[in-house]
Amino acid sequence: MSDLEKLLIKKSQSGDVESFELLISSYDKRAYNIAYRIMGNEEDAKDMAQEALLRVFKSLKDFKGQAAFSTWLYRIVTNVCLDELRRRKNEKYVSMDSSIHTEDGELHMELCSDKETPESVYERIEQRELIRNAIREMNEDYRTVIVLRDIQGFSYDEISGMLDCSLGTVKSRINRARTMLRDKLKESMELSRENIV
Amino acid sequence: MKCETIKNMMSSYIDKDLNNIEKAEFEKHLAECEECRAEYESLIDIIAACGNLEEIELPQNFRTELHQRLNEQKSKRNFFSGIMGSKRMKMAAGLVAAALVIAIGIGGSSLLFDNSMKMAQESAPDMGYGAAPAPAAPPVYYDSDLAVNKAKSREFEMAAAEERGMGEDSVGMQFNESLMAKEMAPSQGLEGQAAESARSGRMVIRSGNISVNVENVDKAAAEIRQMTESSGGYVENSQIDNVTVPQFPVYDAGSEARETTQKYANMTVRVPENRFEDIFNNIKGMGKLVSENISGSDITAEYRDTTARVDNLKIQEQSLQQLMAKAKTVDEILKIESELNRVRTDIDIYTGNLKRWDNLVQLSTIYVYMRELKPEELKSVDVPGTWEKAYQGFIKAVNNVVEGFQKTLIVLVAAIPYLFVAGVIAAIGFLAARKIKLKKKQ
Questions:
Q1: Is the pLDDT of residue B164 over 80?
Q2: Which of A153-157, B347-351, B379-383 has the lowest mean pLDDT?
Q3: Would A1-100 and A102-197 be classified into the same CATH topology?
Q4: pLDDT at A128 exceeding the cut of 80
């Protein structure tokens, strides 16, 4: 943790909103992205990310610096998301966005900069779409580790800190999640191929 | 290696979480097995694709909205910490609650320690003992004080055995009683159902605690030693202390002793598991039992796991030795050597654990604590007749009630400032809540 961060944490703990905003400015985008991948749509992601950051602000006085601030923050983000998903499950609430959700145009802009043939671009977009859907369909515990490990690139240690489970659990869960994701993709690829033909 | 194992290792390999040996084996298998290779490649693809998922930008109003909510939060917090002082409020509430608990508790606990207070009072009679005792009461105390004291200390011992040492008495032995309880506490295991599980082929570590009052500590200790050794066990630890304890004057004919010495013994004996119950009961029968406790902790699962781990490590050791034979360069040899070292150390540690467990299971542990009481003390405990006891009990109860009331009154009066503050705060909170409600309705 840098000295600046320590200082900002200290000031935030005493309730200084500006310091807090400065403190989280390097994390909020990633927090939002984690929430987006776990929740599966932008609207929920925004709600959850804001909720989580508010909670971070509220409980910052309990943060004693045992772990890195970022790990602690992302842990709250994943917890908020998972709590919400569990709550919805209990209420038998089905999110319309999470099952059928098509992507917007920003993809193309980003992709055109790559030197790729139109075909391969199409393939990649298609593949992304498939992966996105496959991830969305996974059980939330497995989805979370995929998001944290393979999309966000956190280390095993960090993930075990965020999810509050042992390193062994994280390892086996990641292994299981990846296999599951692969099986799901295989399935959906075959389906889409059939559709095209 | 089997494909199944390889599949379990895949993620670890991809994330570079394998050691060199495992890594080499993994790669070797992948070169040979087409199926695993295909699986590995598909996983790599997917992980790469996951990493390629675009990062999305924060929504435009994300930060401004958050800013607003943060400020709302802050003002809420200020309100609380400013007016209500949530911490102070909590403290006040806690104090009120604590005061009530103490007030009630004093009534009950005085049952236990009022006797010692009485004795202290009586040694300085001019201080008086409140208004409570009836004029006829003191002679009763004087006459049978020894007996009361004994009855008291027995009561206390029971309480100490139950609560594991909360003792507070002016007589030295109670202090020792609680000490003993502390000594015993750590050895208490998890479950107390050792007997059943031990028979079903499970690994259970059994241990027992006994505390007895005996006539002759030395004799009892020798007996225990003899019993242990003849059963095939041994005495792990034995300690006998002769402690001088101050005693309050005893109003007994002819006795003017102000100090007595008392003997204590602490023993730890290890006996074969099948003789445990026998010996435990024998020790129990040597004197007057103060407390006993048997516990067992089941280590079957851990034991099995560790055995499996050792087996695995041994296999690993073998394959390392084979590898060593094939090693050509110094570098290779060094690497294998260090790995081999690690494996062997692990094997040593785990086998050490297993041995220790074997020992603990085969030999149960009994912790014995003995206190020497003179024969007449051992017997005199039940001297007062029923009638007398009832009379004493009655007076004691009256004293307790009066005292309890006094103390409750004191505490309640003392708590008035807190109650007042709490009331004001509650009123403010109530009004504020109502105002907010009204506002919302409008």
A1: no
A2: B379-383
A3: no
A4: no
Q: Which residue of B has its CA nearest to A155?
A: B15
Q: Which residues of B are less than 8 Å from A135 in CB distance?
A: 50
The answer, yes or no, to whether residue B432 has pLDDT greater than 60, is yes
Determine, for residues B66 and A58 on separate chains, whether the beta-carbon distance falls below 8 Å. Answer: no
Whole-angstrom CA distances from A149 to A130, A163, A177, B15, B295 are: 19, 12, 10, 10, 45
Residue A97 clears pLDDT 90, i.e. is over it: no
pLDDT at B351 over 80: yes
**Positive/negative CA dihedral, A163, A169, A171, A173:** negative
- The fold adopted by the segment(s) A102-197 is Arc Repressor Mutant, subunit A (1.10.10)
Helix (H) or strand (E) holding B375: helix B375-380
Tell me the pLDDT of chain B averaged across its residues.
Answer: 73
pLDDT surpasses 60 at A48: yes
CB-nearest to B51 from A132, A150, A185 is A150
Q: How far apart are CA A46 and CA A49, in angstroms?
A: 5
Residue of B nearest to A14 (CA): B74
Q: Does A11 touch chain B (CB under 8 A)?
A: no
Q: Estimate the share of chain B in helix, then strand, then coil, as percent rounded to the nearest 5.
A: 70, 15, 15
With CA atoms as reference, report the closest residue to B284 among B350, B195, B205, B220: B220
Hey, are the CB atoms on A175 and B11 less than 8 Å from each other?
Answer: yes
pLDDT in tens, B259-306: 667 788 889 999 988 888 888 888 888 888 888 888 888 888 888 888
Q: Does A50 contact B65 at a Cβ distance shorter than 8 Å?
A: yes
- For A:112-131, CB contacts with B below 8 A are 124, 127-128, 131
C-alpha span between B160 and B174 (Å, rounded): 8
Question: Which pLDDT band, with edges at 50, 70 and 90, does A192 fall under?
Answer: low
- Backbone phi, psi, residue B235, to 5°: -95, 120
Residues B102-109, mean pLDDT to the nearest whole number? 58
Would you tell me how many other CB atoms lie within 10 Å of the CB of residue B210? 24
Chain B residue at shortest CA distance from A31? B58
Position A140 scores a pLDDT of: 86
| Bridge pairing between strands B259-272 and B234-246 | antiparallel
The percent of residues in chain B predicted with pLDDT above 90, rounded, is 10
Lookup: tokens for B179: 């000490």
Model pLDDT, residue B248: 57
Asked whether the predicted pLDDT for residue B147 surpasses 50, the reply is no
Domains of chain A, residue spans = 1-100, 102-197
Answer whether A178 sits within 8 Å of B47, measured CB to CB: yes
Residue-range domain boundaries for chain B: 3-50, 75-133+385-442, 302-357
**Partners of residue A15 in chain B, C-beta under 8 Å:** 74, 77-78
- Closest-CA distance, A10 to chain B, in angstroms, reads 15
The CATH architecture annotation of domain A1-100 reads: Orthogonal Bundle (1.10)
Q: What is the mean pLDDT of residues A87-99?
A: 56
* Chain B contact probe: residue of A21, A144, A175 with most B CBs at under 10 A: A175
User: Strand, helix or coil at B284?
Assistant: helix
Across the interface, of A107, A151, A181, the residue whose CB is closest to B51 is A151
* Mutation to test the A interface, candidates B35, B50, B72, B78, most A Cβ within 10 Å: B50
Question: Which value does ipTM take for this structure?
Answer: 0.73
